TrEMBL record:
<dbReference type="InterPro" id="IPR005828">
    <property type="entry name" value="MFS_sugar_transport-like"/>
</dbReference>
<feature type="transmembrane region" description="Helical">
    <location>
        <begin position="168"/>
        <end position="190"/>
    </location>
</feature>
<dbReference type="GO" id="GO:0022857">
    <property type="term" value="F:transmembrane transporter activity"/>
</dbReference>
<protein>
    <submittedName>
        <fullName>Phosphate transporter</fullName>
    </submittedName>
</protein>
<feature type="domain" description="Major facilitator superfamily (MFS) profile">
    <location>
        <begin position="1"/>
        <end position="238"/>
    </location>
</feature>
<keyword id="KW-0812">Transmembrane</keyword>
<keyword id="KW-0472">Membrane</keyword>
<feature type="transmembrane region" description="Helical">
    <location>
        <begin position="197"/>
        <end position="217"/>
    </location>
</feature>
<dbReference type="InterPro" id="IPR005829">
    <property type="entry name" value="Sugar_transporter_CS"/>
</dbReference>
<dbReference type="InterPro" id="IPR020846">
    <property type="entry name" value="MFS_dom"/>
</dbReference>
<dbReference type="Pfam" id="PF00083">
    <property type="entry name" value="Sugar_tr"/>
</dbReference>
<dbReference type="InterPro" id="IPR036259">
    <property type="entry name" value="MFS_trans_sf"/>
</dbReference>
<keyword id="KW-1133">Transmembrane helix</keyword>
<feature type="transmembrane region" description="Helical">
    <location>
        <begin position="126"/>
        <end position="148"/>
    </location>
</feature>
<feature type="transmembrane region" description="Helical">
    <location>
        <begin position="35"/>
        <end position="52"/>
    </location>
</feature>
<dbReference type="GO" id="GO:0016020">
    <property type="term" value="C:membrane"/>
</dbReference>
């Protein structure tokens, strides 16, 4: 949620920095999207650094490196919350654990009681991703459709700048009103309510909202922009 919000803020900052250049020559927008896209590598690099420097999990140590001693040491150190090192930390006591195979996968998920869980979960998220990310990638088009990104300046370059700025601000508003609260409501409730109930609730509400917005898209944007924005915000929440 904060990543989505951060990306919109970065876009707004970059646009503000290039305002004069865009008004002089609208092709300067080309620099903006390249910089915004490049900034996306910064958190990725940070995540990569931390991933490369954190210790492996005991499960990885046992299942991939087959080192029982080190896995036991890692678990003990974690539970005791100390930084002491086991003198036998170097690789040792390797065991031959059979690797998982496709036949294991087929034999387990070939049973309907196991397969239906994988199938139901994966297909639900597949369907959600098509709709949700399709909308997310086209937020600018939706903001334009409801008139939020429209500007009426005579200068075409200034109009282009203000349109892009309004889209960035609109994305910030949508994220603050819907996406971030939705994530943190889930963080607060998921352990109390349970993962399966909160997923089913989310899918059910999204199904209703997608049907309503899909069926009434044109009437909503022509006659009731506030209702459209409310429904669109609820989509982000759920």
């Amino acid at each position: 949620g904060f990543g989505i919000l951060g990306s919109a803020i970065v876009a707004l900052i970059v646009l503000a920095a290039f305002r004069s250049a865009i008004i002089d020559d609208v092709s300067a927008v080309d620099y903006c999207w390249r910089i915004v896209l490049g900034c996306g590598a910064i958190p990725g690099i940070a995540a990569l650094y931390f991933r490369l420097t954190i210790p492996e999990t005991p499960r990885y140590t046992m299942d991939v490196e087959y080192d029982v001693n080190k896995a036991t040491s890692d678990i003990t150190n974690y539970l005791q919350k100390t930084d002491t090192k086991d003198e036998n930390e170097e690789p040792g006591n390797h065991v031959d654990v059979p690797k998982a195979s496709w036949s294991d996968f087929i034999s387990y998920f070939g049973k309907w009681k196991n397969g239906k869980v994988l199938l139901g979960t994966s297909m639900s998220w597949f369907a959600l991703d098509i709709a949700f990310y399709g909308i997310g990638l086209n937020n600018g088009i939706i903001l334009s459709a409801i008139g939020y990104a429209d500007t009426h300046e005579a200068d075409l370059n200034l109009r282009a700048y203000n349109s892009l700025k309004n889209m960035a601000v609109g994305n910030i508003i949508i994220t603050i009103m819907g996406t971030v609260p939705g994530y943190w409501v889930t963080v607060a409730l998921v352990d109390k309510w349970g993962r399966k109930p909160i997923q089913i609730m989310g899918f059910a509400v999204l199904t209703v909202l997608f049907i309503v917005m899909g069926a009434a898209f044109n009437p909503l944007k022509e006659h009731s922009i506030p209702a459209f924005i409310t429904l669109f915000t609820l989509l982000q929440v759920f």
